[in-house]
Amino acid sequence: MRGTFVFLMLPVLIVGALCFAPSMAMAQTSGGRIIGTVTDPSGAVIPGATVTATREQAATIVTQTNEAGRYTFTGLTPGVYTLTVEAPNFKKAVLADIIVEVGGVVTRDVTLEPGEITEEVVVTASEQPVVEVGKGPSIGDVVDARRVLDLPLNGRNPMDLIQLQAGVVGGNVSGNRTTSNNIRVDGVQAQDNFIQEDISTTFISPSVDDVAEFRVTTSPVDAEYGRGGGAQVDVVTRSGSNDIHGSVFYFHRNTALNANEFFNNRVGQPRETLLRHQFGFRVGGPIIKDRTFYFGLYEGERMSTGDTVTRTVLTEPARRGIFRYFPNFANGNITAGTPTVDSQGNPVPPPGMTLDDLQRLDLFSLDPRRSTPDQSGLMRLLLDGTPLPNDFTVGDGLNTAGFTFFAPVNRVRDRFTIRLDHALNDEHRIFGVYRFDDDAFPGFAAGFQRFPGLG
Fold first, then answer.
1. Domain check: are 127 and 141 in the same one?
2. Tell me, what's the pLDDT at 428?
3. Domain end among 213, 235, 257
4. What is the distance between the alpha carbons of residues 259 and 251, in angstroms, rounded to a whole number?
5. Of 246, 245, 252, 176, residue with least CA distance to 217
6. Cβ contacts of residue 440 below 8 Å, gap of 6+?
7. 264: part of which helix (H) or strand (E)?
8. Are residues 106 and 142 in the same domain?
9. Residue 34 belongs to what domain range?
């Protein structure tokens, strides 16, 4: 029975591995790379040299040079690294302060001097021959954690910083649609392939305190990314280290700090309500020093705001079945070239006419044989629930106009991030991230906003 179970589960495991393989492969490209060649003073390559990369307060990674003396570190978490190169009959070389950025490639060629391996040659940053290898002629920039935290962000969405790049207007990059951008978080596609969200509404939306660094490439984007012709955004989230680090934050906005809009003032509407609380904490540290690390984040948001909504309603005479017009002239609201109404809803005769020319059509008097209208009282009930107009910029002014009001919207959002990094050995590492985002924003999802007082 046990053998049968294993036999049946084997295809499932193989299919599962194949399904996850593309995501794992993409995740390897989200970090940075360090590459280089190890030679002796004569220029001859040194195969089999041991090269160690150590990120500040984190695990080390070890590799060896190949037959051509080349070494490569891939998928590196952004940060500051120290390289150590060792080989028999040569002095040990130490290269410090190597900055690795997300999606970037840094070349460090090393020349080992003959001597004992116990001897050490330290190469400072100013002495290192720096070769930064990009991805062709791509245009873009890297936004590190310090800039993400320090730059002002209304709503604390780090993706808004993409608008600082050249060629970006709103969510449009180089003239492309907002849905043409490609965003990956820790190597995983952050957008739904069917919905095609724009930058600000991805289903994986990292918090400001969750981002370690991200790279924006506006043009041209390499074919390895695919999907869209807009920007390519690679986000790398924070991870733990050998030291315990954390922070607690709280941000607040309210109506008293905001000015009213011009259009609200014009129709006598007060300032839109805005009360926002954003709070949370993050913490990261070691579970097993130099091997296993954790990072955790919680962010909550409580917001009361709303929309200024304008609906078309009947004017007071029209509610009684009386429709008004000037002969041989189209009615026009106050935005028309020749309006037939003023800002208070009073009739205004067009050129060559007077108020005596205003015609009234009483629908209820057209047919003297009609039955008594609205015997059930339903129409009166509906009309009584409809307010009179206060905005004569919409409708025809005389029979229909607008009612502008403030529709409240409340938002409750809670999100959690838990990340674990583990070094299996000096050459292999794994990490896992769990994200939970509960965003209740019923006001915008409800569609048609109700008139005030209707419940």
1. no
2. 83
3. 235
4. 19
5. 176
6. 411, 412, 413
7. helix 262-266
8. no
9. 27-133
Please state the pTM of the whole predicted model.
0.62
CA 382, CA 38: separation in Å to the nearest integer? 84
Least reliable range by pLDDT among 42-51, 79-88, 252-261: 252-261
Alpha helices in 308-424 (DSSP H): 316-319, 378-384
What Cα–Cα distance (Å) separates residue 145 from each residue in 6, 54, 200, 206, 215? 46, 20, 19, 12, 11
Region 171-184: mean pLDDT is: 77
Residues in the chain, how many? Answer: 455
* Cα 310 to Cα 332: distance, rounded to the nearest angstrom: 18
Question: What does the pLDDT average to over 293-319?
Answer: 90
Helix (H) or strand (E) holding 79: strand 79-86
Pairing relationship of beta strands 182-185 and 232-237 according to DSSP bridges: parallel
Where does the pLDDT of residue 441 fall: very low under 50, low under 70, confident under 90, or very high at 90 and above? low
CATH code of the domain covering residue 221: 2.170.130.10
* DSSP-H helix ranges across 116-172: 145-150
Same domain, 261 and 368: yes
Q: Express the helix, strand and coil content of the chain in percent, nearest 5 each.
A: 20, 40, 40
Of the candidates 212, 235, 258, which is a domain's last residue? 235
SS3 175: coil
Confidence class of residue 368 from pLDDT cuts 50, 70 and 90?
Answer: low
| Domain co-membership, 338 together with 363 | yes
Position 203 confidence tier, pLDDT thresholds 50, 70, 90: low
Strands (E), 186-261: 188-189, 211-219, 232-237, 245-253
Q: For residue 374, how far is the Cα from the chain centroid?
A: 53
CA 400 to the chain's CA centroid: 41
Q: In this structure, how many other beta carbons lie within 10 angstroms of the beta carbon of residue 35?
A: 16
Average pLDDT of the chain to the nearest whole number? 80
CATH code, domain with 52: 2.60.40.1120
**Residue 11 falls within a domain, yes or no?**
no
Angle at 304 between CA 301 and CA 308, to 5 degrees: 135
Q: What is the three-state SS of 394-427?
A: CCCCCCEEEEEEEEEEEEEEEEEEEEEEEECCCC
Check whether residue 164 and residue 75 sit in a common domain.
no
Q: How far apart are CA 225 and CA 182, in angstroms?
A: 8
Record the tokens describing residue 54, joined without a space: 């150590």
Residue 120 inside a domain? The answer is yes
d(CA 357, CA 350): 10
